[in-house]
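We now fix the convention by which a protein and its fold are recorded. The integers have meaning only within a learned vocabulary of local backbone shapes. The record below shows the convention in full.
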Amino acid sequence: MWLNGSITYYFACITMVLLPVYHWYLPLIMILWGVVWINEIRLRYKDLLSIEYKHKVLFFLFISFFVWQVIGLLYSDNSKEGIRNISLHLSLFLFPLVLVSPGSIIKIKINTLLKLFALSTFLFLLVCYGFALYRSIGFQNGILIFNPHLPVYTWLNYFYASELAIFQHPSYLSMYILLAAFISIESFLDVLISRNMRIFWLAGSLILLASIYFLSSRAAILTTIITVPLYGLFKSKIGGGFRYLRIVVLGCTLILVPVLLTNQRVKTFVHWKSGKELSDLTSKEGRMVIWNSVNNILKKNIVFGVGTGDIQSELNKEYIKTGNSKLAEGNFNSHNQFIEVILEHGLIGLVIFLSAFGMMFYLAYSEKNILYTMFLVIVFTSFLFETMLNRLGGVSFFALFSFLLIHVQGNRGKKIVTEDYKR
């Protein structure tokens, strides 16, 4: 059990279940997983010599980025917040450590782990819908009524956005759902499983994709519009045996895009009647104020950044200087992960961070790993609109699948198959 990594496999299973449901227990699981992995690697230390060079480079880049964050504590004015930040980003160290050489069981059962994540995400989503239904049903004058709107904030809906996503931020849950949808589609396209199971995975993927609309994350909606046709293009080109998939995905896209654009938040963002309306919208969201504040900070801290833990206090100072105290009171961040990295860790940190992304895209391309490609597009697009690594759910998702998916069998003329049929 120690030699083949069976125990770490069980920790991987627990992680797959917890991440989309209740990720607050993940730090404990990560630490225990790390301790067990260290004990395992003592018995199979020769496995470290067989790690692929590309995987070693990716591991080095992730560790370098984490170490640079630790170094940022040395010139931070807010050490307490800096230490909290480091503990939040611990998964950027632990998940690469345990997954760069995870043991034979995890490699063999990688598809089982991915399906477990997709199933956990799907079941949690059903719980969200069930809870929304429960909150929407009530009695009035002895009559059963259905009212999905909140009693006080009547413009909010139990089946919509943050009211639907319990325990989770809608943007983070949308990322989980979109990756789970592609895992489900891959399972549906596996011709070696039974017809009933393929129907189940197809139905699950459709429900997952439809839920992106209800969660109403603009970044997720844009990412869905990008990734669905991209997946069809890649799959029909290198997946093999799916000649008509491109046509099917094109048809789905033609239906999907207009439907997604009917989302109220998306309509508010993309439809404006005049330049003044755009100016008012920008002013309302405070984006221009934030970007100007970012620019002022970078003028003095472009190389090393402001230090680990200081970014929010520095932004708040700039907000107050420009008379935008409400932004300071709300602790508004840059809403862009790449800007967040250069603010906190300077050009050095950004170069390391982008190098890691470049290495991951190279791995996905060289291995023709479609799932890895979809994951990278999902997180890259999300990083353009949100600071995903500021929350445990975002940083854990990014670190975990950045290394877990490198062990997925590539699509060099092969299909992803389940372990049951490998025998």
